[in-house]
């Protein structure tokens, strides 16, 4: 095998390098898949936790204060510290990154879903009750659908934040594209750092647009009212 | 529980507080970085936001900037800066990244606050013969102050968090205790560092909440 040409862009360590893209295609693909997984799993778990929490906080007003206080405190803790605090519990594992991101997403989701539920007009609630709706049917068919736009806004912010925060998981070796950025920093590999960074932003924007599309499909009435 | 006891022992050991790379030095670095960068970011963002808000121009930019800031990973920006000529000055990447991430919340909140001022009030002020500058400083700014301060609070929290991540890219601050703990495979040190960072972040947030409580009612938006 002949040695690589001395003047290719990998040897020159340039920021943009086609050679890098073609030779490390599989590494990049694996990192992207890990990144997507580390984003989607925590956001989905947080959503599953946030809906009941917000409903409880809406129904029993005394619960709203503590729920909001705890989630606000969790959100204030910087991501690197959050992952580090979970280290004794989860060790160096992907679960650590997932757990940390669940806690962040939870804050954004609970706040937004609660705001959405609170914004449902009292007249609407009363009208539904007058039509004989029980509390469960009222919640599922009236309150939650009306809270959807606010909840989706929270979901979009939580997802975009999660995509960006996954990179910090590189400290424990589970950072998706963050691993490539971390390795690229230590080896001064410009093409790898720039490519992985750009891919992070592309994933964030794509996820945001995807959720915007889902929101439009789920809430056709807001479009009719808005136009 | 065992790790917590060991972390507590690590924290209370006086040898870890003093000297080069000790907690005192790292805490000072962290605070200086946060305060200096907050001041620089305010000097950059607030005049722009106040003038844009007063003129009612550039709203799309001001509002979308915060969303863009959220989508760009802090860590990626730090490493990218480290590999550029800025990286030759040891704290260069940290300072530039801190300012970059503190500007969007400042700009967005100040702009939204300025645009949220009741238009009738502004018209009344103009009708009384106030000049544009007088309306800006005497009417709009005081009324927008609660939103401006919300932006400053969010920016400060963001700065504390970003300064922590800077340790991953070789910057100073409390994050260094965490990264050093990871390199030594010392879970107690990692946890101790994380507790310090979390305490600092909560203290900064708490200080702003307290300042808001103690401020005159007018500045809280209660009229």
From TrEMBL, chain A:
<keyword id="KW-0813">Transport</keyword>
<dbReference type="InterPro" id="IPR000515">
    <property type="entry name" value="MetI-like"/>
</dbReference>
<dbReference type="InterPro" id="IPR035906">
    <property type="entry name" value="MetI-like_sf"/>
</dbReference>
<keyword id="KW-0472">Membrane</keyword>
<feature type="transmembrane region" description="Helical">
    <location>
        <begin position="194"/>
        <end position="214"/>
    </location>
</feature>
<keyword id="KW-0812">Transmembrane</keyword>
<dbReference type="GO" id="GO:0031460">
    <property type="term" value="P:glycine betaine transport"/>
</dbReference>
<dbReference type="InterPro" id="IPR051204">
    <property type="entry name" value="ABC_transp_perm/SBD"/>
</dbReference>
<protein>
    <submittedName>
        <fullName>ABC transporter permease</fullName>
    </submittedName>
</protein>
<dbReference type="GO" id="GO:0055085">
    <property type="term" value="P:transmembrane transport"/>
</dbReference>
<comment type="similarity">
    <text>Belongs to the binding-protein-dependent transport system permease family.</text>
</comment>
<feature type="transmembrane region" description="Helical">
    <location>
        <begin position="67"/>
        <end position="90"/>
    </location>
</feature>
<dbReference type="Pfam" id="PF00528">
    <property type="entry name" value="BPD_transp_1"/>
</dbReference>
<feature type="transmembrane region" description="Helical">
    <location>
        <begin position="96"/>
        <end position="117"/>
    </location>
</feature>
<keyword id="KW-1133">Transmembrane helix</keyword>
<feature type="transmembrane region" description="Helical">
    <location>
        <begin position="163"/>
        <end position="182"/>
    </location>
</feature>
<dbReference type="GO" id="GO:0005886">
    <property type="term" value="C:plasma membrane"/>
</dbReference>
<feature type="domain" description="ABC transmembrane type-1">
    <location>
        <begin position="32"/>
        <end position="211"/>
    </location>
</feature>
<feature type="transmembrane region" description="Helical">
    <location>
        <begin position="36"/>
        <end position="55"/>
    </location>
</feature>
UniProtKB/TrEMBL annotation, chain B:
<comment type="similarity">
    <text>Belongs to the binding-protein-dependent transport system permease family.</text>
</comment>
<feature type="domain" description="ABC transmembrane type-1">
    <location>
        <begin position="27"/>
        <end position="208"/>
    </location>
</feature>
<keyword id="KW-0813">Transport</keyword>
<dbReference type="InterPro" id="IPR035906">
    <property type="entry name" value="MetI-like_sf"/>
</dbReference>
<dbReference type="InterPro" id="IPR051204">
    <property type="entry name" value="ABC_transp_perm/SBD"/>
</dbReference>
<dbReference type="Pfam" id="PF00528">
    <property type="entry name" value="BPD_transp_1"/>
</dbReference>
<keyword id="KW-0812">Transmembrane</keyword>
<keyword id="KW-0472">Membrane</keyword>
<dbReference type="InterPro" id="IPR000515">
    <property type="entry name" value="MetI-like"/>
</dbReference>
<feature type="transmembrane region" description="Helical">
    <location>
        <begin position="61"/>
        <end position="83"/>
    </location>
</feature>
<feature type="transmembrane region" description="Helical">
    <location>
        <begin position="159"/>
        <end position="178"/>
    </location>
</feature>
<feature type="transmembrane region" description="Helical">
    <location>
        <begin position="31"/>
        <end position="55"/>
    </location>
</feature>
<feature type="transmembrane region" description="Helical">
    <location>
        <begin position="95"/>
        <end position="114"/>
    </location>
</feature>
<protein>
    <submittedName>
        <fullName>ABC transporter permease</fullName>
    </submittedName>
</protein>
<keyword id="KW-1133">Transmembrane helix</keyword>
<feature type="transmembrane region" description="Helical">
    <location>
        <begin position="190"/>
        <end position="211"/>
    </location>
</feature>
